[in-house]
Each structure stands twice: as structure tokens, then as C-alpha cells.
Design brief:
The complex is a heterodimer of chains A (about 250) and B (about 200). Helices cover about 35% and strands about 30% of the residues of chain A. Chain A is an alpha/beta fold and about 250 residues long. In chain A, the strands form three sheets. Chain A has a six-stranded mixed β-sheet with strand order 6-9-10-3-11-12, sandwiched between helices. Chain A has a four-stranded antiparallel β-sheet with strand order 2-1-4-5. Chain A is globular. In chain B, about 15% of the residues lie in helices and about 55% in strands. Classes of the chains: A alpha/beta (about 250), B alpha/beta (about 200).
Chain lengths: ~250, ~200
């Protein structure tokens, strides 16, 4: 089976500083792949490069998504091709209502796929089912995106956006940092519900909190801008027992 | 609406309005009076003087400016708290693009005899192109000591992290920009101006 995401010899820098130094990674369709590594190893840079953040410059290497060159696409084209990033620090959009924002995003995707826009009634139904499942209240849907929400609520909203857009490839960037157990459960539940034979997840983390709720198929250890080891879920226990220094 | 510099007076209780020419306005607000006026400036200068000259007079001035091409605008708004216990609010927001330039000067003056006044002025500007300019000069002339006064001015480009966040949700760049520009103006301007504003956004976002 072809890989959903294939990264070959990826080098990337921010400013003059090289952060990714020849990274290789393959994620199959349907796979939940955890990327673990100490702070500063380049994990978040990897998610920024895959999604096309303008501050990061790729100097060498390839990123193929469904066999296509992701690096040639704009961030919105990557999103509409099926890549989703749940942010470590979700961005506040004052004055932009969450429901309207999601409707615009969903219809942008439908337009990209050559489908008709969803009308207001169909959209409300589509949204309410997903909101209820993740404990998102009506009042939250009316508020501006990420404004005035607690850290846990913001992560819940990222999970909700993921459920709304139904991407093929979900990157969860440090979703578990600063989350209490209840919020972790919601994120874990969101992933579990969406997990299927086609959809893949890349879970970026530096400890095992979220991985207690979502069992990964594969785990890669990242250090100093490269993947140094890939194995099964048992690797999580090894990291928890003896840290990253042994790798 | 074809007027590119529309205004709307929402409230004018105990107000004497003088409008000597298209660009100049003087409002004299009397005792317990109330003035609320909105201005949208796209091509013309604006010069506003509000004189709060009776006890407990109050005013709200909302002003948005949207400029493009090589338009060069001067916007001057002065609120004079001539009497004690008067209240003023000024909200100014603007977007400039191409090679346009806006010079905004906002003055709150509270003489020594006008105690217990409350004057507020907030200005925010967005610069969409490297050759566009906003020069903001907020000026407080406060001589009374028992007053509340606040002002703030912030000018900058569109937030790249907000743009990126919208794009990661599949929203194309030009649409993302329009969303952020509309939300920047928020509900500062009345519905009556929304066609004019929408047209400007479509052509300049």
C-alpha cells in the first residue's frame, strides 16, 4: 500500500537556523503515529513545515502527500487536500464567529472538491451532531474563534474543528501540554471516534499523557532535527521509563 | 450608496450642528445632550470639533477610514469638554493600502474647570501594503485633575499567524484576508454603510 505521507531527507530552517536536518518519515493510511522527542528537537517545526507556515524555509528534501508534492502547495491547498493541524497554541480571531468560520472553511473544502456549498440548515445539522458529541455548547459556537476560552477549551475546539473538516491526515501538535484529565479524555475520544482504516494521525508529544487514551500503531523518536528510531507502541514505555538520553 | 464619504447621525439631542463645508463639522452639545455620529472616510479629509458645553453632555464619534491608490487624507477629531461632568468616546479604525496615507489627529481637551469628565479615544490602523502609511497623533490636553481619560493607538500589518490559521482550515488567502479585515472593523460602522464597505473590501482585500 502506498504511504499517505512520505518525507524524504527534509531540511528546513527558520531565519539562519537549520532545525530539520535530513528527516525521513513514512506514515501509512490508517496509521496513528506518535512523534516523541525532547523540547527543542524540531517537532513543532515539522508540523509547521508540513502545513506550510511562511516563517519556515525548506532547503532540501521532499514531502509527498498521497503521492503529490506538498511543498508546492499553499497552506489552504494542503488543508483542502486533507491535511489538518491542531495547533499547540490556537490563534485567537477576535470578531470572527466560530460557526461562521467553520461554515466558510467547510464550504472552501467543498468548492475545492467540486461540490456545492452546504446551505445554512444542512450546515447547522452537520455542526450540531459534532458539537454535541464533543460537549461544545451553543454558547461556545457563537463566540469568536478561540477568544476568551481556557487552554482546555481551545484544545477541545481544535478537536471539534478536526471533526467538522474530516481530514485524511491529522497532526496534533502538543495537544496534551497543559491539559487536565477531562480535556485529555475529550481529545482522546475525538481521535478514537475518527480513527478508521484510511485516516492517519501524527501525534506530536513529549510525554505519554495523550497516548494513554490513544494507542499509537507506531512511535518515532526525534532528536536534533531527525528521526532516530521508529518502533511500535512499546517505545512509549521505554521513553517514560528512561527518558530520551538513551536514544 | 455612491457617496464615498458617508456619515450618519444616530442621535442629536440638544445639539447644534454647523457644517460650513463638506469636510468640516462643528457640534455643540448642550446640557444633558447626546450626540452619536458615524463617519466613513475613503477619499476626503475630515475635520470634526465637538464642544460639550452643558453639564452631563455626552458624545460618541465612530470613524472608519478605508483608503487606496494615492489618496492622502487628514482626519482631525477634537472633543472639547467645556463643561464639567461631560463624557466622550471616540472609536477610530482604518485600513490603508496601495500608496495611500492617512494622518489622524485626535484631541481630547479638558480645561481646569471641567471636573468629573470622562474622555476616551481608541485608534487602530491596519497597513496592507509597504508603501501605505498611517500617522497617528493622539493628543490629550487635560488640565482638570478629577477626570477619567484613556486613549490608545495601535498601527500594524495583518497578523500573519491569524492568516496562517485561517489558511490551515482551507480558506484561500484572499478570502482569509477579507475575513480578517471585516472583523477588524467589527460593528463599528452601521448597516447603512455595509455595501460601500463590502465593495471596498472586494476591490482591495
Amino acid at each position: 500500500m502506498a504511504a499517505l505521507l512520505e518525507i524524504k531527507n527534509l531540511h528546513a530552517k527558520v531565519g539562519n537556523k537549520e532545525i530539520l536536518k535530513g528527516l525521513n518519515l513514512v506514515i501509512e493510511a490508517g496509521e496513528v503515529h506518535a512523534i516523541m522527542g525532547p523540547n527543542g528537537c524540531g517537532k513543532s517545526t515539522l508540523s509547521a513545515v508540513i502545513t506550510g507556515h511562511p516563517s519556515y524555509v525548506v532547503t532540501e528534501g521532499k514531502v509527498l502527500f498521497k503521492g503529490k508534492d506538498l511543498l508546492k502547495m499553499t497552506p489552504d491547498e494542503r488543508a483542502n487536500a486533507g491535511v489538518f493541524l491542531a495547533f499547540q497554541h490556537p490563534i485567537e480571531l477576535p470578531g470572527v464567529g466560530l460557526a461562521q468560520f467553520l461554515k466558510t472553511a467547510l464550504n472552501a473544502k467543498r468548492k475545492f472538491e467540486g461540490k456545492e456549498s452546504m446551505d445554512a440548515v444542512a450546515f447547522m445539522k452537520y455542526m450540531n451532531v459534532r458539537a454535541t458529541a464533543l460537549g461544545i455548547s451553543n454558547e461556545m459556537l457563537k463566540r469568536p474563534v478561540n477568544v476568551g476560552f481556557s487552554g482546555g477549551e481551545k484544545k477541545r475546539l481544535e478537536t471539534f474543528q478536526m471533526a467538522m473538516l474530516e481530514p485524511d491526515f491529522c497532526i496534533l501538535d502538543e495537544m496534551d501540554s497543559g491539559l487536565d484529565v477531562d480535556a485529555l479524555k475529550v481529545v482522546g475520544q475525538g481521535v478514537s471516534v475518527m480513527r478508521d482504516a484510511k485516516r492517519s494521525f501524527m501525534i506530536i508529544t513529549h510525554h505519554d499523557d495523550l497516548l494513554q487514551y490513544v494507542k499509537p500503531d507506531k512511535v518515532s523518536i526525534m532528536r536534533d532535527g531527525v528521526i532516530i528510531k521508529t518502533a511500535g507502541a512499546e517505545l512509549v514505555k521505554e521513553v517514560e521509563a528512561s527518558g530520551y538520553d538513551k536514544f | 450608496m455612491t457617496n464615498s464619504n458617508p456619515f450618519l447621525i444616530h442621535a442629536q439631542d440638544q445639539v447644534v450642528v454647523k457644517n460650513p463645508d463638506e469636510k468640516s463639522w462643528v457640534f455643540e452639545v448642550g446640557k444633558n445632550g447626546n450626540l452619536w455620529v458615524d463617519f466613513l472616510q475613503m477619499t476626503d479629509d475630515l475635520d470634526v470639533l465637538v464642544s460639550l458645553q452643558g453639564e452631563a453632555a455626552k458624545c460618541k464619534i465612530n470613524c472608519a477610514y478605508l483608503t487606496n491608490k494615492n489618496n492622502n487624507l487628514n482626519i482631525n477629531i477634537k472633543v472639547l469638554h467645556k463643561h464639567k461632568k461631560t463624557t466622550s468616546e471616540q472609536y477610530i479604525r482604518g485600513i490603508v493600502t496601495d500608496e495611500s496615507a492617512v494622518s489622524f489627529k485626535g484631541i481630547i481637551e479638558i480645561p481646569k474647570s471641567s471636573q468629573k469628565c470622562d474622555g476616551r479615544q481608541h485608534h487602530r490602523g491596519l497597513i496592507l501594503s509597504p508603501k501605505a502609511k498611517i500617522e497617528a497623533t493622539p493628543q490629550l490636553e487635560i488640565w482638570a485633575d478629577d477626570v477619567i481619560c484613556s486613549h490608545g493607538s495601535a498601527v500594524g500589518p495583518l497578523d500573519q499567524n491569524q492568516m496562517f490559521y485561517l489558511q490551515t482550515r482551507g480558506i484561500p488567502e484572499n478570502e482569509a484576508r477579507k475575513i480578517l479585515l471585516s472583523s477588524f472593523l467589527g460593528d463599528l460602522m452601521p448597516d447603512e454603510f455595509s455595501d460601500t464597505i463590502q465593495k471596498w473590501m472586494d476591490e482591495n482585500a
